[in-house]
Structures are given as C-alpha cells and as structure tokens.
Amino acid sequence: MTAPVIGSEERIPAILRPGDPPVAALPVGFERQRVQPPAPFLVTKDDQIFVVVRNSAAGLIINVFGRIILLTGEVKPFTLTFTPASDRSGSVIVQQLPDGWLLNVMAAFSSIAIRRGQCFANVGIQRPGGSTTLLFGSLIREYLVRGAPPSWPEGPLLMPTDGAGFLRSITGTVPAAGAEITEVVPTGARWRLYGMRFSLTTAVAVANRLPNVVIDNGAAPTNGQFPANAVQAASLTVAYTGGQLGAVSIPAGADAIILLPAPIPLFAGWRWRTITANIQAADQYTAPTYLVEEWIEP
After folding, report:
1. What pLDDT score does 5 carry?
2. 199, 110: one domain
3. How many domains is the chain built from?
4. Is residue 158 a part of any domain in this protein?
C-alpha cells in the first residue's frame, strides 16, 4: 500500500474513533536515510567553542558539556573543565571542534554552592583568523545556579545585569582613629546598596559630631550626601542605621538613623563613605556592616 498524499481522497483521520486501527498501523512512514541534522550550527575543524566566565566565588569548578554529530553520523560528546579566577575578571577556555553539527551544550559547576549573581558564563562559537578572531554565535549567556544549569538551544541569552543579583552581607574595614569609613565597589562588580550599620565612639574633646553618608564615583563630584537625624556629643557611643526607614525622629538614648533614598546603584570603583562634621582625632568608627545586591559588570 502506498502512503496517502495530503489532499487526496484517502486521508488519515484527525481523531481516532472506536474500531479505527491503532496509530502504529496507519500508513505513515519516516525517512531513515539522507535525513537533515536537527541542529543549526554546522562547524568545521577550523572552529572553536569558547567559554568566558566572570566569577566571584573561590574554588569553583566549571564544566561545559556538549554533543556533536560527526560527518560519519556518530554522536560524539565533549567536556571542558576548568577553574575560573574569583576576582570577576574574564577566565577563558577554548576547544577545537571537529567537522559536524553541534547538537546541544550545557554549562554547570561543581565543588561549592553559589547563588545567582556570582558566576556568569558566556559560551559561543568562534574562528581564529590571523590578528582577529571571528565570533559566529552565542550559545549560552547566563548566571550559573545550582539545580538549573543553562543550556543551548533551550535557554535564553542574558546580560550579566539582567534579573536578580547576589545578596551580600558585607563587613567592612575598621578605619583608623579620627578617620572616616570608606567602602569601595570592587573591580568587575555592580552593587545596589540597601542599607548599613556602624557605631561611632566620640572622644572627650567637646564638639557635636554629625555623621553623613556620602555616595560618589571614587572622586568628585559627590552624588548624594545624607546626614544623621541628630548630632552626637563627646564621650558617647552611638550606633547608626542607614536605609529606607520610616521614622525621622528617635527617642533619647536610642540608635541614630540616616535616611537613604531608594536602593542606590553603584558601579565598580564607586564608594559609600562617611563625612563627619567636627570629627576629632581620637574619635573611632567601628567596621560597618552593610547589605548589597551584586552583579558581574558586563
């Protein structure tokens, strides 16, 4: 029996009715030879798969898995494994490819637990050529997270600053006596500052101190200056909390507050710091603790 032709009098029923033959018995067949490969990327031995990872987690091991259909029809798996730097710089690994069609690629990690915003992977196809390298396509651009490894061709292509970042609770540096707090966004990072807490112990020298939280780009100009809600007298220790707070006044003897606007975005090299009116040489700030959301800077 010949296979039915679409549009002919003999048609395959759209819905099986009682008494109809099972699907396996219907006159439908599939080609077994000269089948087009189910993959859009035809690669040659001149092409490479590259992996660029920007990461802030120490001790991370990256694994990139994939499969390729060789010209012989054999499906060949491949794996790239390496340990990227943890300073958010770009760690790169490349591997030459054989002639064939790329089927799928997946990026994963092992050895430690990380959260979204700590490790961003960019996987693609390139071809070296003299003084330049030609980029032919991106396969994966996504953060690596446990339980959901990004893959191609299923996954989306994202920028490092897309979506949620990594929430970090940071303990800063204790400044010297008479010095201000200064906290700098590290190279390769982007922060969103939510709030901070620190204490100031004033010396016996008589003067009313007034701490301010200042935001700047690492130099000038100042992008914002936010004062405490009250001055601090000599010979006192007062804790300061900065953030989006509902209260603008506090009872006597309680902690002081510094009202900040909406969470503040900060680029690499930018900083938040204190400027204290009438600070004395023996005044002492503690190490600040503060909350940021962090991304890898593109």
Report:
1. 42
2. no
3. 2
4. no
Q: Which tens digits make up the pLDDT trace of 128-167?
A: 887 788 888 899 999 998 878 899 988 888 888 888 899 9
User: Which amino acid belongs to residue 244?
Assistant: Q
C-alpha closest to that of 216 among 285, 173, 264, 287: 264
d(CA 39, CA 42): 8
How would residue 219 be classed by pLDDT, with cut points 50, 70 and 90? confident
Q: How far is Cα of residue 35 from the mean position of the Cα atoms in its chain?
A: 40
Domain assignment present for residue 21? The answer is no
Beta bridge partners of 167: 293
180: domain CATH number?
2.60.120
Token output for 270 = 């930018």
What single-letter DSSP state applies at residue 25?
G
HSE on the CB side for 265, CA within 13 Å? 6
Count each helix (H run) and each strand (E run) in the chain, helices first.
Answer: 0, 20
Considering the domain architecture, whether residues 175 and 270 belong to the same structural domain is answered as yes
**The dihedral of CA 160, 165, 169, 172: what is its sign?**
positive
Q: What is the pTM of this model?
A: 0.75
3-state secondary structure at position 190 = strand
| CATH number for position 113 | 2.60.60
Q: How far apart are CA 77 and CA 22, in angstroms?
A: 37
**Facing residues of 51 across strands?**
93, 123
- What does the DSSP 8-state code read for residue 138? E
Instruction: Using the structure block, give the residue that is written with the tokens 């603790």.
Output: 289
DSSP characters over 112-131: S---TTSEEEEEEEEEEETT
Q: In this structure, what token pair is assigned to residue 257?
A: 């507050």
| Tokens matching residue 255 | 């902690």
Cα(288)–Cα(128) distance, integer angstroms: 48
